C-alpha cells in the first residue's frame, strides 16, 4: 500500500472561526462632549464546509492537510464600524464522500453531486457593540459583548466510489481479469489471494457510444463483515452501486453455497444491499465443457440471472454486457438520484473501529490563543437579546 496513491479513509481536525468582540467606544469629536456610544459589532467567525468536487477521485490531498482552520471574525471599532467576517474554509472531496464524527462515530453528512456543499462547523457570531445597547434611560452603556467561541471537531472522511456495477467475489475469482478484459483499466493480476489491494474503476463501452462504470474491490472472505481480510474496509465501495455482479469460479465445488456465503456477508455488513439487483457470473468457463455447464445450471439459484463467462477467451462477455445493460436500465432498477433516502442508509459507526484504524494518528494541534482583552466587557446572551 505504500506505493499507492489511492486514499479513501482519512481523519482531519476542523475548527471554525470565533466571532469578533463588540466595541465599547464613546464618540469623541470637537464640540461634541456627549457624543454617546458608537461601538460597532464584531464580525462572525468563518464556517467550515464540505464540498464535492468531481476533479478529485481520492482523499490523498487531505492526508497531508489534516488541519482545517477557518478565519476569526474581526473586532468592532468606533464610528459603529462592523468587524470583518472570518474567512470560510472549504474541504474539497470526491463525489460520494461521507463524513463521521471521530469522537462519537455519528454520521454527519455526505456529498454526492459536483458542487454540493454542506456546512460541517458553524463560526461563532460576533458580539454586539455598546451602540446596540443604548436606550433612553441608558444613553452611555459602557459594556459590549465578546464574540461566540469557535467550534472544533475530529472528522472521519470515507470515500464510497460511484459506479453502476460492483464486482463481488472471493479472492482469485477473476474480478480484475474481467475488468481488464471489458475496459481499459489495468488492475494488478496475479495467481495469489488479495492481489487487489485497492478498488479499481473501469468504463465499459457498449453499443452506440453508450457506456457504464464497473467497480472492482478486493476479494471478500468469510467473516469479512466482522473485520477479517480486506473486505470490511472496502465493502462500502459497493454500497452505492445500482447492480451487483457476483463472480464464482467454475471449478468451485459448490457454486451455490459460495454465492450464498457472499450474500450473507453483504447482509451482515448492510442489510439494505440485498435490495439491489444481482447477477451471477460463473467465471473460468474455459476449463469446463458444454456437458458440465449444463449440469451446473441445474444446481444454480433460480432467483437471479446466470451467465457463464471466460475473461481469457472472451466466452460469454458479449452476453454479459447485454445482460448488465438490460438490468441497469430495467423499469424496476432505474438509477435514482443518489440523494434519495432509499438509495443508501447511513449508519453511525462504532468509535472503537475508528480508534483502531487511526491508532498512529498524532494530535499535534496547538491550542488557540485568545488575544482579546475582555476583562471590562459584560457578557450578554445573544439569543435572549434577539427574543427581546
Task: Walk me through what this model shows.
By secondary structure, the chain is of the alpha/beta class. It has two domains: 1-160 and 348-380, Distorted Sandwich (Spo0b-associated Gtp-binding Protein, Chain: A), CATH 2.70.210.12; 165-337, P-loop containing nucleotide triphosphate hydrolases (Rossmann fold). 16% of the residues lie in helices and 20% in strands. It has eight helices and 14 strands. The protein has a six-stranded mixed sheet with strand order 10-11-9-12-13-14, with helices on both faces. A five-stranded mixed sheet has the order 3-1-8-5-6. A hairpin with a 5-residue loop joins strand 10 (200-205) and strand 11 (211-216). The longest helix has 15 residues, at 255-269. The N and C termini lie far apart (59 Å). 38% of the residues are buried.
Structural class: alpha/beta
Q: Give me the CATH architecture of the largest domain, please.
A: Distorted Sandwich
CATH topology term of the largest domain: Spo0b-associated Gtp-binding Protein, Chain: A
The separation of the N and C termini measures 59 Å
Kindly report the average pLDDT value. Answer: 78
Radius of gyration: 29 Å
Profile the largest sheet: 6 strands, mixed
N-to-C SSE string, H for helix and E for strand: EEHEEEEEEEHEEHEHEHEHHH
The domain count comes to 2
CATH superfamily of the largest domain: GTP1/OBG domain
Please mark out the parts with pLDDT under 50 across 5 or more consecutive residues, or reply none.
Answer: 335-343, 371-388
Please state the overall shape, judged from the principal axes of the Cα atoms: elongated
Side by side, the strands of the main sheet go 10-11-9-12-13-14
Percent in strands: 15-25%
Number of strands: 14
